[in-house]
Specification:
The protein has 3 domains: 85 residues, Arc Repressor Mutant, subunit A (Orthogonal Bundle), CATH 1.10.10; 98 residues, D-Maltodextrin-Binding Protein, domain 2; 103 residues, D-Maltodextrin-Binding Protein, domain 2 (3-Layer(aba) Sandwich). It is globular, with a radius of gyration of 29 Å. It is built from 13 helices and 13 strands. Helix 3 packs across helix 5 and helix 3 packs across helix 6. Strands 3, 4, 5, 6, 8, 9, 10, 11 and 13 form a 9-stranded mixed sheet that branches. The termini are far apart. By secondary structure, the protein is of the alpha/beta class.
Length: 328
């Protein structure tokens, strides 16, 4: 055998494997301390140590020390002082992008670990607005409780706009929303359409006609929703299509408060008939259709990238079944 080959074999045979402590050291060199990463994210996002100090309730000296250590760990400068604030460097901007993602994933991991204490499929949450909550949800919960007694259900009632925000933020698993059909982020199933009607006291002189023309809305004392993305968005598009500029003095998202202001002060609101069933039946309120007509579409939605648990699927199927039966 040639000498060089013999020498190569000897060299190969004499390689010494790394010890466990050496492997750990190499692996640790590629890790970032999560606390330092959190501190950096707050300072970089707020462009200020003072703002981060207030948000985190940590002294600036401690923040500065931890971020200096993070810069030492990574071997690069992450922040530049500018006047009374700071700006991320080029490498700081790269780290900030990943810091947001990493810390968000860590938060999700903690949430799922906590939820897993009750079992992997034992919790599900739903967000709805009125009047859907009072019309359909009681029957949904009664049926669901009988069929799936081991699953814990949380129901949140909010305005249609707030419901949308709860869904997109991941705060709930399912939501009844007014968004358009399927998007890259949200998967939806249509529930039904419902007309939006101009609603007020039966003695309101502006509501004595059988139909309210869109142009006449400008002369009404209207209460409109406050939160974006829900009914407010639908109404604003309707106004824009008719070249109307309506900026009401009152905006809020409570249907109960809207009805009380109609009752006491004679305001009008644009609501579905199901929001005022008792008041319309008693003759206290009237509800007039608009010309051109206006309706909204309710959809059951969930985030596409959210884990589709057995509990989520079961609640979704139960809700769809109840709505279908009551709408038949």
């Amino acid at each position: 055998m040639p000498a060089e080959c013999q020498n190569a074999d000897v060299a190969t045979d004499k390689r010494v494997p790394r010890t466990a402590s050496e492997v750990t050291a190499v692996a640790s060199s590629r890790l970032i301390d999560s606390r330092r990463l959190l501190y950096f994210m707050h300072v970089a996002q707020g462009r200020s140590f003072t703002a981060a100090e207030a948000a985190l309730d940590i002294a600036q000296s401690a923040l500065s020390r931890q971020i200096r250590q993070l810069e030492t760990d990574l071997g690069t400068k992450l922040l530049e002082r500018r006047g009374h604030g700071v700006e991320p460097t080029a490498t700081g901007r790269v780290l900030l992008q990943y810091a947001v993602e990493v810390l968000d994933l860590m938060g999700t991991a903690v949430d799922e670990v906590q939820q897993s204490k009750l079992g992997p499929r034992d919790r599900v949450s739903l967000a709805v607005s009125r009047p859907f909550s009072t019309t359909y949800v009681p029957d949904v919960l009664m049926r669901f409780g009988k069929e799936y007694p081991h699953i814990h259900v949380s129901v949140f009632e909010a305005s249609s706009g707030q419901v949308y925000e709860m869904l997109t933020s991941g705060a709930v698993d399912l939501a009844v929303v007014l968004v358009q059909a399927n998007s890259p982020k949200i998967s939806t199933t249509k529930l039904f359409d419902e007309a939006l009607l101009v609603t007020g006291r039966s003695d309101n002189p502006d509501l004595q006609q059988e139909v309210v023309k869109r142009a006449d809305l400008a002369g009404l004392e209207l209460i409109l929703p406050a939160a974006p993305f829900g009914t407010r968005g639908i109404l604003e598009r309707y106004f824009e299509d008719g070249d109307l500029e309506i900026d009401p003095g009152l905006r809020f998202d409570s249907v109960s408060l809207m009805k009380e202001m109609i009752r006491r002060e004679g305001y009008s609101a644009i609501l579905p008939e199901s929001a005022c069933v008792a008041e319309l039946a008693s003759g206290e309120f009237v509800a007039r259709p608009l010309k051109p007509s206006l309706q909204r579409t309710l959809r059951l939605a969930h985030l596409r990238d959210k884990r589709q648990s057995e509990a989520l699927t079961a609640l979704r199927e139960t809700l769809l079944s109840v709505v279908m039966e009551q709408s038949a």
